[in-house]
Amino acid sequence: MRQTTTAPRNNKLKPSSNLIMNGSVRVRVIRTLLAIQNGQSLSSVLDPLLNSLHDGDKGFAHALLLTTLRQWYALSRLLDTLADNPIDEVEVRTTIQVGLVQLLYLEVADHAAIHETVEAAKEIEFAHATGLINAILRKVAKNPNKFRKKCNKNHSLPNWLAYQLKQDWSEQYNELTQGLRQSAPMFLRVNTAVTSVDDYQQELYGAEIDTDLVELTSGFNLPHSSDTATLSTQALRLHQSTAVSALPQFAEGAVSVQDMHAQLAAPIIHKALINKIGKDKNVTDLHILDACAAPGGKLAHWLELINSAEHSPLFHVKQDNAEVTAPTSKIKLTAIDNEAPRIERIYDNLDRLNLKQENLEQAEKNVELEIVCADATRWQGAGKKDTSEAVFDAILLDSPCTATGVIRRHPDISILRAEEDVEQTAVLQADILHNLWPQLKVGGYLLYVTCSILKQENALQMQDFISHHDDAVAVEFTEDCNWGIAQTIGRQCLPIDGISGDGFYYALLHKAAE
């Protein structure tokens, strides 16, 4: 999934985005927050921050930064009620918000939070505001419960986003907006080509890492049939997030960190592909596509399913308790993304999971893996520049989106996104869909996935697409799916509590004969 990236629209910010990592812990966090407000993403500034600190300071800095981002807009509104006059200097506002987080959410001792925050203002050369900062923080320290309740009462989102969520999800609005302020649980995907979920959970238990087994069941109605395709996928939810270095066999590729709802993508498109070859007994070669594939989590999951005889009858099927060769003799899996650095991340992930081309060949899997740096709005899989040709049996489109469904993990999204980004992203999504659809064979499937919770990017996008393509048929998910909320087309997952997965949308399209 490729997120759209846009700088915030705020003409009060300094144009410079250089990140200077010196000074106290609080100063470094303040400078990191200023860099984010200048358009840099959390993912690009978090490592420089943590790497600049001693090990003993990293936990506090991480908590201070992430909590400030998650409560950003609520803190800003609280600050406006605490100041007698508007505070326009973004550096001063940011410093005060960092101080408020320490008093309201991190349980830092009053004297330490106030003194160190005032000193931080001096370090960033805003000594003229120390009196104001001291006064506001002392006022809050006298009655933190009162101000915490006030801060928590409403959402912590930009007004345009809160308004849109109210329009899209009126029944779930309160739970949703409060859920987006929380940290997200950590989920694991076990590589079932290497070990079983049960066995790996036992390994975690032996390493004193407690987990819950989460099973997601799915079903969809097969086109032109009364039959239903059913599948399930199992994820492990950690009771407490932990460093990947502490996970048994992580470096050897036995497990990956992947959100629970993200783990639905590969099994759904894989099941649809199996259904397609079941309908066409003459299929010998398959060509499948993972579009917008970086950083490669869903691609790796699909390859794991292809590699696992337990989950994939593409090479092996059971007949009368005996294993025989399936009709498929060769699979070509093409993955594309338009950013070279993100392509490198795909290679890194596949390398750790032993899923690069040489690994597939050593495992005697007749799978050809091709990774291409290309723009999905124009790329042609048949190698032609101008003429689309139907070459793919299945397409997984992990579409670019505003990533509003993963705000819990990337709270900078609330700052970096603007209202106009939604329309621009929807246009980009439509361009990709219109380019890829002609390249899907009749009888094939396209799974459309986003990590957005905005209907314009999801169900409304699908409705518009189908209205312009007579051969596009929405496949209905069955009512017994234990994930997501049924939409006019597809299903929507919402991040509404501390144990749920992220906000993902899924729609499965079948290409019918015109």
CATH homologous group name of the largest domain: Vaccinia Virus protein VP39
Number of helices: 18
What sort of overall outline do the alpha carbons produce when their principal axes are compared?
Answer: globular
Specify the CATH architecture of the largest domain. Answer: 3-Layer(aba) Sandwich
Helix and strand composition category? alpha/beta
Q: What fraction strand?
A: 15-25%
- The beta-strand count equals 15
Helix fraction bin? 25-40%
How many domains is the backbone divided into? 2
**Assembly type of the shown chains?**
single chain
Termini Cα gap: 31 Å
CATH class of the largest domain equals: Alpha Beta
Question: Sheet with the most strands?
Answer: 9 strands, mixed
Overall average residue pLDDT:
90
Which residues sit in consecutive blocks of at least 5 with pLDDT less than 50? 3-17, 317-325
Question: What name is given to the CATH topology of the largest domain?
Answer: Rossmann fold
Rg (C-alpha, Å): 25 Å
Coiled coil: 343-370
Protein name: Transcription antitermination factor NusB
Binding site for S-adenosyl-L-methionine: 292-298, 337, 375, 398
Keywords: Coiled coil, Methyltransferase, RNA-binding, S-adenosyl-L-methionine, Transferase
Task: Describe this protein with a few key phrases.
N-utilizing Substance Protein B Homolog, Chain A; 514 residues; alpha/beta; S-adenosyl-L-methionine; disordered N terminus; globular; 18% strand; Rossmann fold; four-stranded antiparallel beta sheet
